[in-house]
Amino acid sequence: MSDEKLNVAALLSGEASESEDKTRLRIITYAHRIFLERGFRKITVEELCAGMALSKRTFYKYFKNRDDLVLAILQEVVRTRFSKVFFNLNSDQPVRQVILRHFQLLQEEAFQNISLVFLSDVQDLMPELWEFIDQVRAQVALGLGRLIERGQREGAIRREIDPEVFGKIIEAFLLRVADPRYVMTLGLNLQQVAGTMRELIMHGVMVPEEEGGR
Q1: Is this model's pTM higher than 0.90 or not?
Q2: Cβ contact 98:89 at 8 Å
Q3: Residues 71, 72, 74, 79, Cα dihedral to 10°
Q4: Phi-psi region of 156 (alpha: psi -120 to 50; beta: other; left: phi over 0)
Q5: Helices 22-38 and 66-77 sit at what angle, rounded to 10 degrees?
Q6: Angle at 119 between CA 4 and CA 115, to 5 degrees
Q7: What is the pLDDT along the chain (214 residues), one digit of tens a residue?
Q8: Domain boundaries, the chain
């Protein structure tokens, strides 16, 4: 993994400069599918190359090692999927619409491209990359906190909700309850966790539409 510290904002605003190379993209796409299903701790470069009928020499032309490939996969997911999540959180659409869209994007796009077994391997084997994932989660929590503030101003969020406390609760939820190893021990998946959080926000934080909520 590169010594350069990953930055969420820089990644989201950057261009996928190498993604047009068909061979590199083929490696990322194939490995991504395998890693989603099985994680990567037991997957070797040799196995990946054999599965793609690719020489190791060609692999190492694009990636220094397996961890470098894992990094590229995660960067691509953040750039292509989570960029939509952040764009939505920062949009000026009605708060109720933004929240519904937020969880739709998580369940139908973001969480379709990462898995608990993949995240668990990152957490165990690549601590620096896990710090980057924590950056992403912290930015999501911050965005939701700001959305709650706007929702209160617009009459969509209950007045008794403290936006700062809510943001901290969301951040703690993401760090603990959404921890991949913990979720796996519960026999759940990321989509189920996101769906439950959506229901808690829609029915516990938002003003019902029949009561004048926007």
Answers
A1: no
A2: yes
A3: 140
A4: alpha
A5: 90
A6: 130
A7: 444 455 655 555 555 554 458 999 999 999 999 999 999 999 999 999 999 999 999 999 999 999 999 999 999 998 888 889 999 999 999 999 999 999 999 999 988 888 999 999 999 999 999 998 888 888 888 888 899 999 999 899 998 988 888 888 888 887 777 788 888 888 888 889 889 989 999 998 998 876 555 5
A8: 74-211
Structure token pair of residue 200: 């808690």
Q: What stretches of the chain show up as alpha helix (H) in DSSP?
A: 8-13, 22-38, 45-52, 56-62, 66-77, 83-89, 95-108, 116-125, 127-154, 163-172, 180-185, 190-204
Say if residues 184 and 123 touch (Cβ distance below 8 Å). Answer: no
Residue 137 CB contacts under 8 Å (≥ 6 apart), including other chains: 171, 174, 175, 178
Query: What is the C-alpha to C-alpha distance for residues 192 and 142, in angstroms, rounded to an integer?
Result: 22
pLDDT digits (tens, 9 = 90+) for 78-133: 888 888 999 999 999 999 999 999 999 999 998 888 899 999 999 999 999 999 88
Of 104, 83, 81, 76, the C-alpha closest to 17 is: 76
CATH of domain 74-211: 1.10.357.10
3-state secondary structure of 117: helix
